[in-house]
Description:
With 424 residues, the protein is mostly beta strands. Helices cover 12% and strands 31% of the residues. It is built from five helices and 28 strands. The strands form seven sheets. Strands 1, 6, 7, 8, 18, 19, 20, 23, 26, 27 and 28 form an eleven-stranded mixed sheet that branches. The protein has a six-stranded mixed β-barrel with strand order 9-11-16-17-13-12. Strands 2-3 form a two-stranded antiparallel ribbon. β9 and β10 (129-131) form a beta hairpin. The radius of gyration is 23 Å and the shape is elongated. The relative contact order is 0.16.
Amino acid sequence: MSFPTTLERTIRRGAACGALLLALVALGCAAPDARARPVLLTTADFASLVAAGASPDEGLTPGYGLPGGMPLKRILSQPGGTPTLELRETFTEGYRSEYVTTEIWAGFSAVWVQPVYIPVMGYAANGTPIRAAPEDEHPIFSVGPGSAFYSPYWEVHTFEVPAGDEVASFKSVRDVLDRGVNLREGEARVMSIVPEGVEPPTPTDVKNPDNEFVYPKIGGPTKRTGLLGGNVVHFLDFNGGTFTWDTYGVIEEAPIFVWVARDATGELHALDLPTVAGTGPLYSNRPAQVWGPNQDIPKYGSYWRLYTVEVPSTAQVFAAPDDAATRAALDAFPSLVAATYDPTLTAAGNNSQYAGRVMVNPACVAKTDNAEPYFPKDNPAQPNCRYLDSQEKIEHFIPGAAIVRTDILVTCPFVSYHDAPVNP
């Protein structure tokens, strides 16, 4: 993929913004009300709210399309006094995965990639950068969380430290650009600038049932330090390859679906169920990217547009009698809890892999064999459960009017896929 230079993107972005401003003036548009104004919340904001004693149930960015806003408890908590990012479950093409949330944009039409500069000692014949010593390899960020143009999506620009110069003498973007160094554009990386004390989730071990091998359930991010305006900043490095951008530097968004339901008065409420992460733009029918030695490991995005999906009136959620967490999430909506389960499904936690999945044919759980997903096999007389656990299935079974675009964009990098660590 060929990307324009930073200067080209800046010119195009400025022209686009200028044209939009002139159009608004010509139309005599009034200033938007407070709720409609763009709001950027970063991990520093989440940590400040938690430190100030904000309620875990406080909904962030209400009024932007998600009923009640995003509960703080799903983003960051402070167990033992340490601010820690919360794991959030999602379904990805039928598998249960997990991510964390580091930024929220409300009322933004787009988010842009930004340049970050990394010193190298030169380039090999094939163009591969010769890296500096690990203690000297501090990324130099071009914009910080205090700016509305901040984003954790960076296009890496490596620069060759001239012979006789010290790596440590480069502390800001001005140092890099003013000294005429050899710059080369490179990979895309997700690096969220965070307060020093913020921790990623603690990995939990899972056991492979086939060979008893124990491994961490989640991977990344790596805690590192960089420089911003000459000052040391802390960031979480989620690595690269999980986003792309256009010629204007606008990052491509993918949908992530949040389930909602109506109460007795008809008011919509967001449900505390696993989300469903998409693979590409809505109705694009685009499969997930893949990576790995055999190109068989799905690589999901990190930049999402929230869409609400209203649970169909005939659908219910897999919430077995011994599944306290899912049932608590549906406490105010008892009609969404499938009532009759084959006893085998509740034995020794056999239902855990299906917990929280919305089913379009909930009677399927009355027979154990039917609990398996309907792909790839199905018995027309006793159909397997049709779980809405992928973008494809939501777009197939849910009417378009029940899938509603919100004005909320989020950074949610994956840290596990199908109970295995993600380290792109």
